[in-house]
Amino acid sequence: MYLCREDVFSNMMEVIESLMSNVNRIKDEIKYSSENRSEELLNFIEKEILKTKESINELKNPFLLFVVGSGNYGKSTLINALLKDNLIDTTDLPNTWKLDIFIKSQREKLEINYINDEKKILNLQSGKRMLKEEEDKYKQSKKQVSRELKVYKKNTPNLDSMKEYKESLEEKYLYKSNVSQVKYYIKNDTILNDFVIVDTPGLNQNLVKGTIDRMKEYYRRSDGVIWIVDAQNIVSKVNNDIIDEISMLDSTQITRKNMIAVINKMDIIRKNKHEDIKKIKDTVDEIYKDKFADIIFISAKEAINGILKNDNSMIEESNIKELYKSIDKNFKEVSEINQIDSKYTNLHIMKNNIKDSITSYKRNLYNDISRYNEAEYELNKSLNNIKYTAIQILNNIQYDEYIDDINLYLLKNKVKEVETILYSSIEKTYKNLYTISNFSQIEEKDMLDINLYFTKSKNLIIDYKEQQILREYQYKNSNQIESLLNKFNEKKSKNTNEYEVIKRKIYSKKIDALKKEIESAIEDTLIAIEKSINNTRDKTFESKYLHNKQIKEHLKYINNIENILNDMGC
């Protein structure tokens, strides 16, 4: 057993508001971009919630009651009786050129819609005057057709030709209003509390296309149909045509519309013999019993007169109260159950759609979080490996191997070899780290440019001052050897050793400085790589989701949404 619409609306809106509260908290965390998965999820969830909210809001709206009947069957009088107010002017001319929609409103007004989709809003009195002018134009054109036809009839008694001539006259003179729809916004606490009433001409009438399209649309949306029949004309081609029209419209619907047949003008039948009433009821039952949810026999004229005069006996005689009860039972109660059921279905669809999207999102997010952590581990491991490799290579540079070559040619070649090996290793490592750390499909423009130029080091060059020192010791040693070869043999050996010591000292100092320079350059490069990779990983992850530090809080709200959906029970 369902709750009433108000309670269902309140319960459903509580769920919607709770979901939106968590969505709005997530909104503040996201850095929007063209490929942000968190934004995509949020937009999808929000769209589903708002779509469902719009559907739930329909629980506050009145149902749509569709009134069908041919001209002169008392349709306008019936609507006045339903409204309990003499709102619509009743005339002998059938209203065949527009839709009338009656809506409850605290501000009374009349909205006139035209076939070109323009509209005009007026107060009730001004609007009704304008519509009367349209009716008067129609009456005058109708009179002109009648005059022309009367003259033609005197001269040409042939019925077939007269029918064709009448159609040509109507095409030529009959006024066709460009008003297609009129909405009456009125203060009314009767049937309009639960229904919007759509008073429509039959599809068999000569209507403009805009009116026919609107009529079909209202029928599609309607929650019930009142089909009015003149008790004096139960069996007629017009009635059969309207039945065919309703069947045609119903064939486009998933379920058949609930319909009530209202047999009007029973007051006229009562003036005759009671046998006629029984005969009419038997005929109606035989023809229409399988086509309608209920059949009510009334006098709309007696109903509205009794209401206006506050004459209860006339109201009872009209049988209008039975129609009120039938509308409640067959339209309001049934529509309420169907509508609530429909809203629960929509809520269930929203629940499954959102849960499926969250499941897919979390699967991808968890995979990328794992990848994020693996990328951080791989970065530290790779940088340490490069440092170890560099130390091993530098330790292989021995002093003695390069001491004897004053132009450092061998050392320079070795340094070039070291430069090539380390550059290749660092570049390959950086590209690999960049690939596993980039969560975006677009390559970053600020990708680091790796440069190693060890061979340009000043420590591979003997500068002028150092050359002077070496030449000085070399020249001094050479002269002493020549002049004191015999006398100062011991001194000569000492000077020769002194030259070698100075030479070794200078070269050793340069090699040590070169090693430190290479170590420093590698350290700076690795620091730059670490910064670049960390920046790429954080920036692209944030671009795809949000900042890594916000993930825990982010997932809390995502889980809240899932829990709310799981607790819905639909």
UniProtKB/TrEMBL annotation:
One of its GO terms (biological process) is ribosomal small subunit assembly. Gene3D superfamilies: P-loop containing nucleotide triphosphate hydrolases. The keyword Coiled coil applies. InterPro entries: Dynamin_N, GTPase_Era-like, P-loop_NTPase. Residues 66-265 form the Dynamin N-terminal domain. It holds the Pfam family Dynamin_N. Residues 124-155 form a coiled coil. GO terms for molecular function: GTP binding; ribosomal small subunit binding; rRNA binding. Keywords: Coiled coil. The keyword S-adenosyl-L-methionine does not apply. This is Dynamin N-terminal domain-containing protein. It comes from Romboutsia weinsteinii.
